[in-house]
Amino acid sequence: MREQKTADVLVIGAGIIGAATAFRLAERGLCVALLEAQAAPAMGSTGRSAAGVRVQFTEAVNVRLSWESIQEYRAFPELYGEDAGYRPIGYLFLVPEAAWARHQAGVALQRRLGAPVEVLPPEEAQAIVEFVPEGIAGATYGPADGVVDPHRVTHTYLRLARARGARLYLETPLLEARHAQGVWRARTPHGWFEAPYIVNAAGAWAGEVARRAGLEVPVWPVRRVVFVTGPLSEPHAYPLTVDLASGVYFRSEGERLLFGRSNPAEPPGFREGVDWAWLEPTLEVALARFPWFAGLSLDRRACWWGYYEVTPDHNPILGRMPGVPGWVNAAGFSGHGVQQAAAVGRVIAEEVVDGRAHSIDVDPLRYERFHTGNTRLEAHIV
């Protein structure tokens, strides 16, 4: 177990991003070793996400990454003989007056890039979801938006990667990594690994993984909580609905609802467990917009928590690390990793094999933006 292992690329993290990247690298003929700290894949942010996929973003690169990924998830049965669990239940954004102009500009961008998005007046949106319309200028609806099964997608990509020679090492955290003579040497509890390239796809742990290599990558973990209701008395298929005025969201999951709201006051860190103190503030704003929430029950045993991997501008960090040979970042998705993984796997493989991503221009997401002042805050963060 302690012999030295060599590869062309070490991918750190076997969540959905790492799995998609390993598949695409192996597909291009590279020898890939995938190092996962946990006892099984998809046990971090991937497995604890709310599983939404959407095209409604304000930055073109985010729209393209998400839209191309959604199209791949939709085609999973034809491409890979597996069902990605894709269900186009839709995303409905309720937009306050102050954000309406910016939101309409986002719709124009999304449509220009080929993504289907509809603009609805409040009364048409109320036919989809009953809500109090005060302060709402209008709504946008993405009919191709919806949900996938993150576990199934991850395991499909891993199967495809391993069929092409990739090796998966579980319970193998990266303890330290150093670069010398064109090769990265990574120490793990099971010995040393060597490869010319390391892809940092460690999710919420990406900042820590970088520090173990002597690097600073601005990715921090922030806890997010998903609350779950009991079965509805009158089952109804709700799209993933977001009240942008308060940040509260919900969607159907079988006979239940999932709902939540980001806590802007919670500092970064690996806090564990459901934050029950955040339930009352979440319900307070939910009831103001959706009074029918008063008739719902809560299943405390079904609620869960996970981590967003957050960056300063809520955009991922993709591509080669400037001045650091062989280090490639694929992290910091700020809650959007599941919906962008399929396309990210391709662009990271291009970055490694071809020297630069070319199917999608990811220059706005490169690390250098933090030093050139070219950061652009993604406005559509839930």
Structure write-up:
By secondary structure, this protein is of the alpha/beta class. It has two domains: 5-49 and 150-219 and 312-372, 3-Layer(bba) Sandwich (FAD/NAD(P)-binding domain); 87-145 and 224-305, D-Amino Acid Oxidase, Chain A, domain 2, CATH 3.30.9. Helices cover 27% and strands 24% of the residues. The chain contains ten helices and 20 strands. The strands form four sheets. The chain has an eight-stranded mixed β-sheet, sandwiched between helices. A hairpin with a 2-residue loop joins β16 (249-253) and β17. The radius of gyration is 21 Å and the shape is globular. It starts with a strand and ends in a 10-residue tail after the last helix. The mean pLDDT is 96. Residues 8-350 form the FAD dependent oxidoreductase domain. One of its GO terms (molecular function) is oxidoreductase activity.
Summarize the structure.
It comes from Marinithermus hydrothermalis (strain DSM 14884 / JCM 11576 / T1). By secondary structure, the chain is an alpha/beta fold. It is built from 10 helices and 20 strands.
The secondary structure category is alpha/beta
Number of strands: 20
With strands numbered from the N-terminus, the spatial order across the biggest sheet is 6-7-5-15-16-17-14-18
**CATH level-two architecture of the largest domain:** 3-Layer(bba) Sandwich
Q: Taking Cα atoms only, what radius of gyration do you get, to the nearest Å?
A: 21 Å
User: What is the CATH topology assignment of the largest domain?
Assistant: FAD/NAD(P)-binding domain
Shape: globular
Specify the number of helices: 10
Question: In this structure, how is the largest beta sheet organized?
Answer: 8 strands, mixed
> How many domains make up the 3D coordinates?
2
| SS strand fraction | 15-25%
Unreliably modeled segments:
none
Name of the CATH class of the largest domain: Alpha Beta
Order of helices and strands: EEHEEHHEHEHEEHEEEEEHEEEEHEEEHH
Distance between the termini: 43 Å
Q: What helical percentage do the residues reach?
A: 25-40%
CATH superfamily of the largest domain: FAD/NAD(P)-binding domain
Can you give the mean pLDDT?
Answer: 96
